[in-house]
Amino acid sequence: MAPAQIAVFLVAAALATIVVAAMYLPGVARVFLIAQAAHWSLSYVARPVVLLWVRPVPSFGDNVPDPRLYEYGYDGGIAAVLQPVIFGLWVYTGLIVAYVLWVRLGPRVRTPRVAPFAGDPVFQQTLFLLYGIGTLGRLAAYATGTTGKAGELESPNPLINLVTILATLGAVGLIVFYRNDSGRHTALVVGALTCGELVWTATVQSKTPIMGAALAIAVRFAMTGWTRRNVIGVLSIIAVALGGFGWLQSLKTDAAAKADAAQVDAQYPAVVQPFLSMLRRFDLLEAATDAWFAGPSSWLTPGEVLRHSYQSLIPTQLLGAEKFRSGAAWAEQVRGRSVDMSTVEVSLAEGNINEGYVLGGYLGVAVGVAITFVLLLIWIHSLYSKYLAIAILGLSVIEVPVLFERGILGTVEMLGKYLQAVVLAWLAYLVVGELRRRMEQLSGAPAPSGKTRTAQWV
C-alpha cells in the first residue's frame, strides 16, 4: 500500500472511530460528532481519493487538484500534508472516546430531555419575526447586488449582512425549536425553511446555509426522538441538498460558462461529476497543504493570538480599529508563501488542525483540537439552556461551521459577529413578549402562569 493510501486509511479510521463512539452518546452530541466526521471526510478522505484515482491536471476554474500537490506528486504530497491531520484527528478521537467512557461508566449526569425554549410561543413568534426581517434583508441584498459570495473579505453592505443573519437564526431556530400538534403543519414549516436555505445557498454560492439547515433538522430529531421515518427524512434531505446545490448553481450560469465547466469536469469519471460542485466547497485539504508548505510555528505568536481573539469579541465601533481577519490573513501570510496570492482577495477556512500546526507545530495541533472538543461540550449544553443569549449562540454554532472548518481565531471572530445578532434577538424577544402581554390584557385572558423568560438574558 502506497504512503498516500496509508495516510488516507488512517484518517478514515479515525473518523470511523468517532462515528462509532458517537453512537454511544445520547442526544445532540451524537448528531454533531457524526456531522463533523462527515464534513472532514469530504475534505480529508473524498478529495484525496479523487486525486489519487483521477490524478487531474490543475486548470483554471477547478480547485480540486492543487498545483502544489500536482508538482510534488500526488502520492508523496498527500502522504506528507496529511501527517498533521492524522495526528490531530487521532488526538480528537482519543478525547471523544474518553468522554464516551466517562458518560457511560462515570457518574450519571441527567441532561434535560426538553429544552426550555422548545415550544415556547413567545420564542417561536420571535423566531418568525427574525426570519421575516432577515428575509427582507436577503431580498434587499439580492435586489441591490450586495448578497456577497463565499470567501469575500468584507460584506458589500455590513448593515444588510447583519439583517440577513437574522434570517439564518430564525430558520435554524424554528427548525430546532418549533413545536406544533399537527405533524403535517410542522413538516410544511420545516420543509419550507429548508428550501429557503437551499435557495440562499445557491444565491451566495456557499454551502453554509443548507448545511446549517440539514444539521438543524438532525438536532431537532435528536431532541424529540429518532424514528425510522425521521432517519429516512434526514438522509433524503442530505441527498437532495447535495444534488440540488449543483443544479441550482447551473441555473445561474450562461451557456458559455456551462460549456467551460463541462470541459473542466470532463477529466473526472461520470460517477464523480455530479458531486464536484459540492466537493469544491470542502477545501480543508488545501489548507492542510498551506500549513505543510508554511511549516510549524511559522505564523503568529501566542500573544498575538490572544490579542486578536479578545479584540474579535469587541464591536468595531467600540474597538476603533479594523479587526484582524484570520481567513484573509491566512490567504496572504500562510497560503501566500507557496501560492501567488498577489492578485487574489479572498478569506479562507483554515481548520483547527492546520491553524494549530502553523501556530505551534504538533503541540499547537493538540491545543487546537482540544479547544474544539471543549467548544463542542459547551454547545451540547447550550441548546438546553434556560438563558436566551446562550440558546441563540447555540443556534449560531449550528449554522456557522466554526467547529468544522475554522480554528481558534476564526471561531472567536464568528462568535463575535453573532453577538450583535444575539442582542437584536433579545430585543425582539422582549418586544414580542410585551405585545403578547398587552394583547392578553386587552382580551381579558388570564396571564400565563410561571415566571417570564424576558429577564433571562444573563
UniProtKB/TrEMBL annotation:
Keywords: Membrane, Transmembrane, Transmembrane helix. The chain crosses the membrane at residues 6-25, 77-103, 159-178, 231-248, 357-380, 387-409, 415-432. The keyword Hydrolase does not apply. This is O-antigen polysaccharide polymerase Wzy. It comes from Nocardia yunnanensis.
